[in-house]
Write a structure and sequence with these properties.
The chain has a domain of 51 residues. 82% of the residues lie in helices and 0% in strands.
């Protein structure tokens, strides 16, 4: 059960990070696509961050694990949305 909760936290944090990335510059791809790409990035980088920090998803639901999931998911969503938007904009200008 904790694993599902951690994944949901990462996806939601990634979606928020995707929205932030979309509003920061010209990399926005629309609300829906920013949310989806951000959620995927949040889940992927959130899982990587959990493995690297030793706070494996599914072990416990303490404050450190939840914080790690929020930060990892948010940053992952922001980064992936920024990269995908940047590539999309570069392809559109050619």
């Amino acid at each position: 059960m904790e694993m599902l909760i951690n994944a949901l936290i990462q996806i939601i944090s990634g979606a928020v990070g995707g929205q932030v990335a979309g509003r920061l510059g010209k990399q926005g791809m629309g609300t829906g696509l920013n949310t989806v790409v951000g959620g995927v990035g949040g889940l992927v980088l959130g899982q990587i961050a959990a493995a690297v920090t030793g706070m494996e998803s599914g072990t416990t639901l303490d404050l450190a694990t939840i914080g790690s999931n929020i930060v990892g998911g948010g940053v992952g969503g922001l980064v992936l949305t920024f990269i995908v938007g940047w590539i999309k904009n570069k392809m559109a200008t050619k």
